[in-house]
Amino acid sequence: MAGAVIENLSNQKLSYILGLLFLVQIAFFLVGAWLAPKPTSSMEFLFRSCIDANVTGRNWVDHQNCHEIELAEHKPLSYDLREIVFMTQMPHKRDNQQLRYHPSFQFLLGVMQPEIRSTAAFKHVRGSKLRLEVRMGARGGGDEKWRDWIEADVVRELDCHFPWGHESGDMHCDALDFFEIGYVPFPFYVMNIRIPIDREGCARDPKNTANCDLGELVGLNMVVIHQNGGFTMVWAWMKTIVVPFLFLTVRWYWDRVQSLARPPLLLEKAIFALGVSTTVLDLPIEWLPLWFERVPFMLLLGDLRQGLFYAVLCSFWLIFAGEHLIDDPTRNNLKSYWRNLSLVGTAGVALLVYDMCERGMQLSDPFYSIWSSSTGTKLAYLSIYLATLFTVIYFSFLFYKIWMVWKLIKQKRSNQYYQNNESRRLKVEAIIFRFKFLMLFTLLCAFLTILSYAMKQHGEAQLHDDEPQESLLTNSTSAFFTGTFGMWNIYVFLLLSMYAPSHKQYVGAQHLMDETEELMDGSAESNPMTTFLKPSSD
Amino acid sequence: MRRLKILFLLLFLLVDVIEAVGWLSVGLSSANLGKRSAGTFCKELKTLNRRQQRFCRKNVILMDSIRRGAQSSYTECQYQFHKRRWNCTLLDPLTHKVIGDVLLLEGTRESAFVHAISAAGVAYRVTRDCAKGLNDACGCDQTRHEIPETTRETSLHSIVPRESKSEFVSEGCSDNVEYGNMISRDFVDAAEKAHGKQKNSTSAQAEQTIINLHNNRAGRQALKTSLRRECKCHGISGSCEMKTCWDALPSFREIGSIIKDKFDGATEVQVVLGEDRPHLKSKHNQFRRHTHADLVFSSPSPDYCEADPVRGILGTKGRECNATSIGTDGCDLLCCMRGFERRVTVVQEKCNCKFVYCCKVVCEQCTRSIERFYCL
């Protein structure tokens, strides 16, 4: 990469470009802050308890035909209490209008919060299991009747505790992951849940039989989360606008690399891979659910694209730092990085396994959760711990490598040979500048990503307050989403355009940092970027 | 003639005042809307004042929630006070009339509690019923459009129908306790405002109105602060990169306990007529100033020992007490040192039950004597 664009750019031009990109970054942020609503919404559904003596029937209980009972006053009709149906219809009516779910919601996530009371007669035993027979029906806009959609037998372990200072009575139960549906094909849904009690099982082995040691079930409370349609629109449009730019940049970059007289370098290939994976991440597949009815894989696909981007980004950093170890003879060979890259690979595969087991399985059974079985929990913990471990090793290694590069830079500068040979000095200074520029820029992006993550957490954790003191920052979670998205796109865009081979030199360009290369003609000596760095090296 | 007119007016006002918490008896009525019109249904709820009648006709669909809110408030009040001399008997079970006049006219601590718990109860039940899908009229998250309670003029028309459908698709509809609080404000506070605004209401009544409104608001505030923030992470591989939070309602028992704590720490206040609007000032300056969330009262409570039907005090004669306790339910305190009697009853009970395969439970009959103590 003899002479990347960045080395041949005047200070003035570079600052213009950076300034322009800074404005673009602010635009990304403002799009989120002004145009987009909150990314997600939740709606609460308290199940009504109805009587339906027709236990084996396939009929649906909805608001119209629910014979509501008070659970505490109910006299059991059957042996297993199957006649009680917990029912809810989604979404609610609000302001006297029937709301409808929309395909642009992308996904529906359900969280179940059972309300449990522990009394002397019905004692709650820690870690008891709740088993629900769930039937979910759906209805289109023109349909009269509910159609069968999903059926599942759900078992979850409860985690309940008494509020501070109480020893009996109402308990606080942790929310249970209930379902994840990666598309929203119908506007209306109904859910019927029966909670059968196997009395013989309870008498024999209450520990391992579900629904025995629950305590008194007071009610079922479900929260359903979806992505807001307005946010989806802003997000999809933003991607639609960004992706052609990025695609063209990647093409331009690769054309430049291809037109060199030598085969592409590893670093150039790495930048290209990063550009491609970012383009894949930017493809606006959010439009798909609006065009096609059945696309249940939106959540999984989103995870895969994001995972790919992170894996390529991490690999790129490693290669970039490695390729700047100027005297390392093993450079420019992917094989020499296999040990380092296997860190990224293993972490990525571990998370992929977890994701396929959780969200992949949910394609066939949305009520599936890897955490509900003991083997599944072990597997999930194994993959997450493995991924965490390898990520930690990766970053320690990356920082070690960066530190090595810094040390090398210092060493080079104090080197006698380097001091005497002017063209050699300029060459090394160019490499140093290139490295420093990307380092600082990467650090800035990483810092801003962490900051925006923190702001998102902070904004969401705030209790609803109707006092107007709520600041802009806690209210604009969307702005942090669009801002971070824009920032990484700008990062990749800048990499592609700044680290592309400069056309001023590329005809005669040789291997990167070739020691024997006949160096630096007149144009390089007047290179402003290397002189720009000079004061810091003295 | 003129004097007679004033007397008549006063009598009329007295009736009006007595009904300030009178709407609580809505909780005991088994009235269901059925096929009746809103007008006749609301007229049957005689304890509502004019403003509340108007609210009822406009939002008749909410009246069932309000009825159950009143019920749970009353049950909770009796639970919180079952160990005390005043055990929150407010409604005559036969006549369905409010009997605790002390509450309404004297502005005691107990009155503060009843106002707070009933305002919270209505808000709680309305919120729960919205989550159940029982009320089609429920609104979405009002926080974005809301003006703080202090400056807001309560109106009965505040439930403005919006273009919910398209708004829901675009930005969702997170429902929380705000809607319930708004209904509570409109309905429960209407009980006070009606005579608070009358020109010729006496200053004592106006003061009582201010105190009652304050306590209503403190009750709703207790409900709001009792909310638990729960979150779900749903980013890549379930990470917290994407996170959605909501406010979970606790059980009403918890809210009752919070208000009971506020009852124990209530502040005695007097109404001071300022330049623009009257405000509440603590009677004892050495104590910390009360906040919007604290309960306030204006007159000390009686000891509730002896029955005084005129003031609506039942007395503690005949109440069951705990001979071994040294707390408020102990026989000494509860019976006001008048002494107590011991009664032993023998009961037949099922005991030593066995589960027989399959499927019945066989028990033995046991006799057990139970010792109970009652105030003289």
From TrEMBL, chain A:
**Domain (Wntless GOLD): residue spans on this chain:** 50-227
Keywords annotated in UniProt: Developmental protein, Golgi apparatus, Membrane, Transmembrane, Transmembrane helix, Wnt signaling pathway
Q: Which GO terms describe its biological process?
A: intracellular protein transport; Wnt protein secretion; Wnt signaling pathway
The yes or no answer to whether the keyword Transmembrane helix is present is yes
Keyword match Membrane: yes
What cellular component terms from Gene Ontology apply here? endosome membrane; Golgi membrane
Molecular-function GO term, any one: Wnt-protein binding
Instruction: List the subcellular locations.
Output: Endosome membrane; Golgi apparatus membrane
Where it mainly occurs, coarsely classed, is: membrane
Entry protein name: Protein wntless
Which organism is the protein's source?
Answer: Mesorhabditis belari
From TrEMBL, chain B:
Q: Does the keyword DNA damage apply?
A: no
Q: Name one Pfam family in it.
A: wnt
Q: Which domain of life is it from?
A: Eukaryota
Q: One GO MF term, please?
A: cytokine activity
One example of a Gene Ontology biological process annotation: cell morphogenesis
The record's subcellular locations are: Secreted, Extracellular space, Extracellular matrix
Q: Can you tell me where the transmembrane regions are?
A: none
Keyword Acetylation set for record: no
Give the GO cellular component terms, alphabetically. Answer: extracellular space
PROSITE patterns associated with the record? WNT1
SMART domains listed in its UniProt record = WNT1
InterPro entries per UniProt: Wnt (IPR005817), Wnt_C (IPR043158), Wnt_CS (IPR018161)
What keywords appear on the UniProt entry?
Developmental protein, Disulfide bond, Extracellular matrix, Glycoprotein, Lipoprotein, Secreted, Signal, Wnt signaling pathway
Q: Which PANTHER family match?
A: PROTEIN WNT-4 (PTHR12027:SF101), WNT RELATED (PTHR12027)
Q: What does this protein do?
A: Ligand for members of the frizzled family of seven transmembrane receptors.
Entry similarity comment = Belongs to the Wnt family.
What protein does this entry describe? Protein Wnt
Q: Which organism is it from?
A: Mesorhabditis belari
